[in-house]
Amino acid sequence: MITLKLRIPHVLTVAGSDSGAGAGIQADLKACAARGVYCSTVIAAVTAQNTVGVQGMNIVPEDFVAEQLKSVLSDMHADVVKTGMLPSIGIFKVIIQSLKQFPVRALVVDPVMVSTSGDVLAGPSILCGFWYAFYIQVH
């Protein structure tokens, strides 16, 4: 008799938390669950938002983002890391450094810059900084 052991794919999402649950970490959790994928999370920012707009945002300190990444990646093998809204280039650099220590099969960068309601979460300079930081780290 042949026994097959199926492994559930694991996505680690690094993004902002949306109190309205329509975007961010909460949306990633729902999307992964709908596809039968295990999803762990690292919170990079916490927002106060609803269907009307974003009323506030607090950025999680880089050292705590690094601690969250190490906690998850050192214990559970993530197949893919997916980023969402990252409020600073520093947090993106922390992710790249963590992935050097704990490699994954793929990095999916989704540079969320504007909320669904139209509120700006990150300016164009952040996007340029992400690509520059990524290029420097991989070359």
Automatic annotation (TrEMBL):
Gene3D superfamilies: 3.40.1190.20. Residues 18-124 form the Pyridoxamine kinase/Phosphomethylpyrimidine kinase domain. GO terms for biological process: thiamine biosynthetic process. One of its GO terms (cellular component) is chloroplast. PANTHER family: HYDROXYMETHYLPYRIMIDINE_PHOSPHOMETHYLPYRIMIDINE KINASE THI20-RELATED, PHOSPHOMETHYLPYRIMIDINE KINASE. The lineage of its organism: Eukaryota, Viridiplantae, Streptophyta, Embryophyta, Tracheophyta. GO terms for molecular function: hydroxymethylpyrimidine kinase activity; phosphomethylpyrimidine kinase activity. CDD domains: HMPP_kinase. It comes from Actinidia rufa. This is Thiamin biosynthesis protein.
